[in-house]
Design a protein that fits this description.
- Helix 1 crosses helix 2.
- 28% of the residues lie in helices and 31% in strands.
- The chain has an 8-stranded mixed beta sheet with strand order 1-2-3-4-5-6-8-7, with helices on both faces.
- The longest helix is centred in the middle third of the chain and has 16 residues.
- It is of the alpha+beta class.
- The protein starts with 11 loop residues before the first strand and ends with a helix.
- It has one domain: Aminopeptidase (3-Layer(aba) Sandwich).
Length: 190
């Protein structure tokens, strides 16, 4: 079951990152990473072709209050986003009774391969289970997106099933892989 969340007063700090709400002044950093071809396409959206496109997305992030800006401490720059969205599990009889959110993430191509996204995702997992009281988190990736698959595996998610995802913004349907992390199994593994 979907629950309403509001991260507008939440700041999460890790060794190298700060996850915080988006601000109007983040628009240039957002455009810098979201305008790189191949970044958005891995997540189902077309790379931004104008600062206005980034400004519109930024406004949605601020209004919806469910997407963190990922700030790299070393250079105080927003390098990605991590959102908590409606989950595919709400429509699956086995999981529909759970309080669940879907994690979605994007990272600037310039920061790939440094272990930053697993660091961010693990911090948000703790926040979701310990502060929000969620029962489960889900995540998905397009079948060809090996970078996201590696992040998902490092963070302890279990593969559930293959599916189809229609990316409206790209007007394409992709085969995807769906995963879940149950709070009870995470506690048992600690």
């Amino acid at each position: 079951m979907d629950i309403k969340i509001d991260i507008s007063d939440t700041v999460i700090e890790t060794d190298r990152l700060i996850l915080r709400p988006w601000k109007e002044t983040d628009v240039n950093d957002l455009f810098e990473y979201a305008s790189v071809e191949g970044v958005g396409e891995m997540a189902g959206w077309k790379h931004h072709e104008s600062i206005e496109a980034s400004r519109a997305i930024l406004q949605a992030f601020i209004i919806e209050k469910n997407v963190f800006a990922i700030v790299h401490k070393e250079d105080n720059k927003v390098i990605g986003s991590l959102g908590l969205h409606r989950s595919w599990a709400e429509y699956d009889d086995e999981y529909a009774h759970l309080k669940v959110k879907e994690i979605g993430f994007v990272l600037s191509k310039a920061y790939w391969g440094r272990g930053l996204m697993p660091e961010a995702v693990k911090a948000v997992i703790s926040f979701c289970f310990e502060k929000l009281g969620l029962d489960a988190l889900t995540v998905s990736h397009f079948i060809f997106n090996n970078q996201s698959r590696r992040v998902i595996e490092k963070c302890g998610f279990s593969f559930v099933k293959k599916g189809q995802y229609h990316a409206k913004l790209l007007q394409k349907t992709f085969e995807d892989m769906k995963y879940i992390l149950l709070r009870q199994s995470r506690v048992a593994n600690k």
